[in-house]
Specification:
This protein is an alpha/beta fold. It folds into three domains: 5-59, no CATH class; 81-338, Aspartate Aminotransferase, domain 2 (3-Layer(aba) Sandwich); 341-467, Aspartate Aminotransferase, domain 1. It contains 17 helices and twelve strands. The chain has helices spanning 46-58, 81-86, 89-92, 104-121, 133-150, 167-174, 192-198, 221-230, 251-254, 263-266, 323-336, 340-358, 379-383, 388-396, 425-444, 446-449, 463-468, and strands at residues 125-127, 157-161, 178-182, 203-209, 234-238, 258-260, 281-283, 295-298, 303-306, 374-377, 404-405, 414-417. β8 and β9 form a beta hairpin. It is globular and about 80 Å long. It starts with 45 loop residues before the first helix and ends in a 10-residue tail after the last helix. It binds pyridoxal-5'-phosphate.
Length: 478
Amino acid sequence: MTKLIFEKNIENTDGIKLTDEKIDFNFINEKYLSKETTSIIPDISELEVMRHFKELSDKNFCIEKGFYPLGSCTMKYNPKVNEILASLEGFTDLHPKQNDEEAQGSLKLMYELQESLKVITGMDAITLQPAAGAHGELCGMMIVKKYFETIGENRKNVIIPDSAHGTNPASAAMCGFNIVEIKSNEKGFVDIEALKSVLDENTAAIMLTNPNTLGLFEENILEISELVHNAGGLLYYDGANMNAIMGHTNPKLMGFDIVHLNLHKTFATPHGGGGPGAGPVGVVEKLQDFLPVPIIKFDGNKYYREYNLKHTIGKMKAFFGNFSVLVKAYAYILLTGNKLKEVSSNAVLNANYMMHKLKDYYHLPYNTKCMHEFVLSGDWQKEQGVNTLAIAKRLMDSNFHPPTIYFPLIVHEAIMIEPTESETKQRLDDFINTMIDIAQEVKTNPESVLNHPLTTPVKKVDETLAARNPDLAYKVQK
Ligand SMILES: *Cc1c(COP(=O)(O)O)cnc(C)c1O
């Protein structure tokens, strides 16, 4: 087990010698000087410090280390040049309180990003403020709420399919809406009859992901949007799966009124471990005055922050949101240009290739062409005593990040695989072959599959015990 750097203390070792001169601390007011004689800073050489942190970073799995087919998360390659651009001094040394004249470059970048996202989503106005997809959903639901208040309608229900990501009902509930869940039909789509039966004058909105979390494109999306609009409701688009459709179609054409995007998924900014991310929200014209402030505008001469929106819901986040994430997404969009459409085509091609290769070995509950991801079931393997969790752990020992498992909830033993466009065919084949090997191993020697992982820093944990009796205190090793 790795020790803390404090435990690697070797007394009288010099880290780095700044000067041989004795420093006179007289210039510091007495009351600020520590009275303690022992230092908490460990004595450790510079080389050992380097080794310590490298060792820690090696424990981390990341997209640079291996294939990361985590469904719904779009773990694509994040071009390193974007990091360089985001750390340019002109961006990092700028204070958000500086006036518009001194911040023209940054404002221009945000304005052009807004414009690009308008084209990609078909929406009429964009806010870049929300810090993640879920935060975008919250922003969208606050807009829905304020919109109906403004037009004097008291609509309390938000309809959400049972395949939805858990953040959808959570965001709507936080705004005080009742969640009305509708079942998916046997093909994995919104059940039109079930939808009709819950639509009424109480319907505020429906929240949909399209392609949905099964990786399937809602074939009746136009009928759905007509039904909801005829009932006076709004359509909210969870844009987490935008990587499947960019340049081919957009949420506006499908009839949506509000959209969030996950820049950290579709537009190649790093994510995992809690952020930072960015979840811009786009709206159709009749909702644009409800966006959070400020939004960035251009008068033909200069870029400026507009605070004066008639029905604004206020602020979602300090200043502009996570600005450096915006820089990286903007750079990715410029870098990719009109090839964004190709990005989606390749993401969809990769997913269909893998699905086709794996469907004889793992149960495929919805056996139809998929979009950028697909959902297998570990049912066959479970019958032989190996559940999906064990398959996921087994994969870790082959240097693969496990796919998303047990989501969406409507698939037993779900294994949700999203390759993205950035992987080579060789890498996809490696993963496919490993999955096939595991399926064989389940048949011949199920016991051995259950022992993994063996090579990771943390081995097999007792999931129940870990949740019930979390042991969070680190005990210093002597
Ligand atoms: C990732 C995801 C979200 C939430 O987005 P965050 O950026 O993680 O907050 C919502 N819906 C779907 C379908 C997602 O995949």
